[in-house]
TrEMBL record:
Residue intervals of the EAL domain: 23-276
Protein name: PAS domain S-box protein
Shown residues in whole-protein numbering: 429 to 704 of 705
Membrane-crossing segments per the record: none
Length: 276
């Protein structure tokens, strides 16, 4: 009896119970948020390190719940992935980001590229390429001004990833590998990939100004990028010392709190105006 009691306690451990309650709650709330369009997008600027020029922005979804307040993507994206809700939510984000970028161009701002994160689940929708094509057509955005950020995890799922990537790229859309270096086989597979940019994961940038191993990894990634003629961007740049290292090692672009946090549409417009 004692033992069963102990197992019972372990099974119904409060933290597990709470977690699943939170999950159920968030899942329901996600469905409602989808219906009522309670999401919006912030944009984080990307800069060319040499010139300080604004070269693009990453669209990052934001959920402001009427009662629960702001819920960070790290909390709800995984649930959206598991439930499949990421498909309609992701499509909304993609459409919204393309619409917005087209609107900026129509207002006369110098064109720049907006990147949208594509979840694994979205990536394997059979009609993905058609959806992307249709969204570009509907919004009137030229494909070159859209970039899709995908993670290495798609390559673990199937051998089909490469032809899908190729079809997206054939549309003229740019492809970036997000969180580069955190997967298993980065270095071996990247050679065969139809991609434009690799994004050095923030975990290597975090201590790159003081850690020899991170320095070696970042250098290796920069060398690969150069050899394969890929563009490269560092994410999570927070400090001048990190920037100095990246700059000295020939990293072209950067993104991070040192330059700017993700900001609302209006603040991007201020930056675009200032860049004119
Ligand atoms: P990610 O794609 O790697 O995005 C970068 C995350 O790092 C963002 O967090 C961004 O705000 C944060 N960040 C940027 N610069 C810095 C910095 O200098 N220091 C630190 N500490 N953090 C920085 P966010 O917006 O909370 O998003 C977290 C993750 O959620 C994203 O990681 C991405 O995986 C996912 N996500 C966010 N928006 C979307 C979306 O629209 N669609 C999909 N599928 N996933 C999204
Ligand atoms: Ca990203
Ligand atoms: Ca249509
Ligand atoms: Ca990332």
């Amino acid at each position: 009896v004692k033992e069963r009691g102990r197992n019972g306690f372990e099974f119904f451990h409060p933290s597990i119970e709470e977690k699943s309650l939170e999950r159920i709650l968030l899942e329901n709330e996600l469905r409602k948020a989808m219906e009522h369009e309670h999401f919006h997008i912030d944009y984080q600027p990307k800069y060319e390190l040499l010139t300080g020029k604004l070269v693009g922005a990453e669209a990052l979804v934001r959920w402001n719940h009427p009662e629960l307040g702001r819920i960070p993507p790290n909390k709800f994206i995984p649930i959206a992935e598991e439930t499949g809700l990421i498909v309609p939510i992701g499509e909304w984000i993609l459409r919204r980001a393309c619409e917005q970028n087209r609107a900026w161009q129509a207002e006369g701002y110098a064109p720049f590229r907006v990147s949208v994160n594509l979840s694994v689940r979205q990536f394997f929708q059979p009609d993905l390429v058609e959806r992307v094509r249709e969204i570009l057509e509907d919004t009137g955005l030229e494909p070159q001004w859209l970039e899709l950020e995908i993670t290495e995890s798609i390559f673990a799922e199937t051998d089909n990833a490469v032809p899908i990537l190729q079809s997206i790229r054939d549309l003229g859309v740019h492809i970036s590998i997000d969180d580069f270096g955190t997967g298993y086989s980065s270095f071996s597979y990247v050679k065969h990939l139809p991609v434009d940019t690799i994004k050095i994961d923030a975990s290597f940038i975090r201590d790159v100004h003081m850690n020899k191993e991170s320095q070696a990894i970042v250098r290796a990634i920069l060398t690969i990028a150069q050899t394969l003629h890929l563009n490269v961007i560092a994410e999570g740049v927070e400090r001048e010392e990190q920037l100095a290292f990246l700059h000295a090692e020939g990293c072209r672009e950067g993104q991070g709190y040192l330059f700017s946090k993700p900001i609302p549409r209006q603040e991007i417009e201020t930056l675009l105006k200032a860049a004119e």
